[in-house]
Automatic annotation (TrEMBL):
Protein name (record): Succinate dehydrogenase hydrophobic membrane anchor subunit
Domain of life: Bacteria
Alphabetical UniProt keywords: Heme, Iron, Membrane, Metal-binding, Transmembrane, Transmembrane helix
Residues annotated as transmembrane: 25-48, 78-96, 108-131
Primary location group: membrane
Pfam families: Sdh_cyt
Gene source species: Populibacterium corticicola
Cellular compartments annotated: Membrane
InterPro entries the UniProt entry points to: SQR/QFR_C/D, SuccDH_FuR_B_TM-su
Keyword Transmembrane helix listed: yes
Length: 150
């Protein structure tokens, strides 16, 4: 064994391989910040849905339709969806990096993760912004009571 294989402890550290830069640092910071924001969003969501004004007994199609008609609740739900999905996807990506030993396995798992993330976020966003509890030209007897005001 030659002495050149082991650097002196007093030598300045130099990376010898390509690194990912600050991506992992930003991912780590994002997890902490998004976790705190998600706690506020989720407990606010639960409080409004389960505790305020009659609690769980008032949750029905009309309640959900009314909430999804409000720009405030659309924004709230959109933030919850996006932050939760990015937060969870980043966490699963980290687990894949830690436990998938083969490069091909990591590529397949991360691809499946990206596909699942994309489908869920796109469909969830579409539901939040396109949900209409009172579709036009629908028979009146099939519409919920909140549609009578139209």
């Amino acid at each position: 064994m030659s002495n050149s294989a082991i650097a002196s402890p007093r030598d300045k550290y130099r990376r010898t391989t390509l690194t990912r830069g600050n991506f992992e640092l930003w991912g780590w910071l994002f997890m902490r910040v998004s976790g705190v924001i998600l706690v506020v969003l989720i407990f606010g969501h639960l409080f409004v849905n389960l505790m305020v004004d009659g609690g769980i007994n008032r949750i029905d199609f009309a309640f959900v339709g009314g909430k999804l008609s409000s720009p405030f609740w659309q924004t709230w739900d959109l933030l919850m969806l996006w932050l939760a999905m990015i937060h969870g996807t980043n966490g699963v990506r980290t687990v894949i990096n830690d436990y998938a030993e083969r490069h091909a396995t990591r590529v397949v798992l991360k691809s499946l993760l990206a596909i699942g993330f994309t489908i869920t976020v796109v469909l969830g966003t579409l539901v939040i912004f396109t949900f209409d509890p009172c579709p036009a030209n629908s028979p009146a007897e099939l519409l919920p009571t909140i549609c009578e005001a139209r």
